[in-house]
Each structure stands twice: as structure tokens, then as C-alpha cells.
Amino acid sequence: MPQPPSSPPPLPTTAILPSSPSYEPLRTRFFNARLPAHRPRAILRPTTTAAVAAAVRHAAALGLPVGVRSGGHNFAAPSLVPDGLLLDVRGLNRAFSYDARTQTASFGPGATGEALSAQLAHVGRFWPFGHSPTVGAGGFVTNGGQGWFMRGWGAASGWVEALEVVTARGDVVVAAREGEHADLFWAARGGGRAFFGVVTRVWGRTVPMRRVWDATLVFGIGGGEGFEEVLEWVLETDEGPSPRYGVETAVVTCWPDRGEEGARDEVVSRELMLVVNCVAWADSLAEAATLLRPWAEVPPELENRLVARVPVKETSWEELFKAQDQLNPTGNGERWQCDSIFNDPKVPKKQLIEAIKPAFCDLPTRKSIGCLYISDYFPDEEDQSMSLPQQYHISTMTCWHDPAKDEEMKKWMYDVYERAQPVSCGQYVADFDENHRITKIMTDKALRKFLQIREKYDPQEMFTGHRGPAKALEVLGRL
């Protein structure tokens, strides 16, 4: 930890202290009501890069660790550092700009997917923002960015041209693929909670905006007995006739009454739904229908499980965001946990499906869901720290309301993902929780490189988020 000087300077006058009435509402401004009890010494809400630099210098002088929160969507809330400074960057550098000459958009780390979609639409452009409307760009980019149409276009990290970063010394630098801080740029894109600086502005490459369309298939899979055959067909269709560009596909398992109002958590129905949703990027209905044609016909042997079909129709970002909010409701005491794997692409599909079945079919509460997102993305560890193959992002999100159920829910999640671990090559860094399960978030080579760069920029460990992911090298025996 940084060592404080003998006479440390006072905190900025804008700091929100535990004695303030606004402290607790700000401390708990997260998507998840299930939070660690950590209490930062102060919360700062900078609006300029200079204010961030000053805050980081104050933290260094006081010997305090720093946590950074943009949208507050990380399930484990790692930005809540005990007795440290919490930088809430939601209001930082809020001005959006677009350079028509370079076709590059610039925005702050607190810009949400919902805000970016509207701002980009105003200038007729698109950048692959997050699926959730309230995910902040700062955390989204540093986690690598599983944005829209990732299957054909790759992660949002590949669309980032440059980042403005405040380092642990309080210096303001611009990092890009070339130049003095190319190593910082490499580490930022995929480092997630382990990153050792504060992203204060993002420059992203854009493309012309097009219309969005979707189609949906809903299968009844009973208590899970139809899971294997339906999912195997989905994965075969994705690998075969489904176009790679301009189409994305996600599979969700859920209980049919999960959308009903109220805080009831108990599962009543034993008839699981498996929903296949496909979104297309196209200028016309005819083009969208062509892109989604492989999903128009269901094999005869699955027809008896098909309970609903929504044909190709035009949708909007507003409607797509609304659907995401319905998947992950918040604001009424919802306590969430997420665990996930990236599948090992070498594992046969049948073995994969068998291993993940409990995580998708034994959902313990009414609002819990299983999700398989077809990312089909294989990043280059030389280009960015986001380095694990991402053929499928396989996750389960459990939701409940009673804190007394926390340990029960945690054990359920641990058990089903320990069963899935043999078919995994690691985990999406945004889902990592060192207090739950230690697993890889990068390739071993990339993680070693990341830790070396971290030592260069933050030798005093002002940013402590790397400690959990670093344990993977030791725990998994790869030192």
C-alpha cells in the first residue's frame, strides 16, 4: 500500500464523508442490492479530468487505495475498497463529440449504452455499446466490452482508438496502440477490475447507423429434458448457415412466471422456457429476413417443443434495452449473483452441454436465468489483455430478495460452476469474484505481462483490483 506522508493534505472539500446524509445512497449506487460491507473513507464525484488527477494525488498522499465506479454494474462491486477513496465517474467528461473527418466519437467513462445509442443516432453513427442501457463506458471498455454484434465485429475494445487515463501518480496521459503508453492501452482493454488507472475519456471508431430487427423462438423444455436437443440445434445452426456479420444470437433459460410482479422468489412452475433471440443489423425487412433465415425453420423433431414464435420484425434500441432491463430487474431489493465460463473450444458440444445443464436447468429462484451468448470471438493477446477465446459466454444470474438466503444461493452457484469448470478455459473479467471462485481472466502469458505493466505504473498498489485475478497463477499452479 502507498505510505502516507507525516502531514497528509486534507481531502478535497467536495469529498462526501460517512457522516454526510448522501454518503450511504452514493455508496450503494449499484445495480446489485447484495453488496460487500466495505465503507470507503470518502466518495468523490469528479466532473473533469483535472479533478480526477487531483483526487488520485490526494489518495497517494494519504496512502489510500482507490476504487473506480462508472455504471455500477459489476455484480461483485469491486470498486468498494475498504477505507479507500471511491471515485464515482458517472458525471465525468459528459460532453459527447463526433469528428466527421476521422469518424471517431469521444465520450466520458460514465456514458451509458442508452445515452450513447441516442447520441450516436443523432449523428447517424454506431459504436458497439453495451447490451444493458445503464452500463457505463469506462467499466465496459476496461472489461473488454461485450457489445452488440460481437460475433462478427469483435469486442468493443477493438473499436477503441485511444484512451485518456489518469495514472496512479496522478499524471494525465493519452494511450493508443502506438506511442509511449501503448503498454497502458494494451492493459486497459481487458484488465477490468485489475486495471491500475482511471479512464477519463474514450475515443471510439464508428460506422454508419443501420436499423435493427429481431426474431424470437420460445421452446418448452419441461424440467430440462429438452435442453440438450434444443441447444445442440442452436449451436449447430450458429456454426453452419447463420451469417457471421450483422447477426447476434443469445439463448436464455427461465421460468415462465419470472416477469410477474412481486418479490416472491420461490419456483412454482416446473416447466422451463428456452428462449432464442436473434438480432439483425440491416436496412430493410428483406435484408433482415435473409440474415435470419437459418432460424426461420425448426427441425421437425423440435416442433413439439416450440411454444411461441415471433417472426422477423423491426425493433429499436429502446426496445432492446427494455428487454435487457426485464431480464435483470433492479431497484426493488434484488440481490444478484453471477458466475460464468468461457467454453474451451476444443471440448465437444455434447460434453459442453451436459456440463452446463445444471447451471441452466436447475435455476433456484423465479427470477434467475441461464444465458449463453454466442460471442464467437478469439482475441489476440498481443493486441490487448482481453485474451481468452470467447466462443460462448455461458453465465447464470441468480436473483433473490431475502439476505438470509445469501449463503444458500452462493453455494448453489459454486456447485453448478465447479461442475462446469472442466469444460471451461476461463471467465469474463466482469464476472470475476475472488470471494466466490478463482479462475482465469486472461491467458497466463497475458496475465504475466499485465502484472509487469501494472508494477511499472502502480508500484505502490494504489489500485488493488489485480490481487484477486493474480491469485489464479498461484492457485491454478501456473507460477
From TrEMBL:
Pfam families assigned to the protein according to its UniProt record, in alphabetical order: FAD_binding_4
Keyword Oxidoreductase annotated: yes
Gene3D superfamilies: 3.30.465.10, 3.40.462.20
Record key words, sorted: FAD, Flavoprotein, Oxidoreductase
Residues in FAD-binding PCMH-type domain copies: 36-209
InterPro entries (alphabetical): FAD-bd_PCMH, FAD-bd_PCMH-like_sf, FAD-bd_PCMH_sub2, FAD-linked_Oxidoreductase, Oxid_FAD_bind_N
Record carries keyword Flavoprotein: yes
Family: Belongs to the oxygen-dependent FAD-linked oxidoreductase family.
Protein name per the record: FAD-linked oxidoreductase YvdP
Organism annotation: Botryosphaeria dothidea
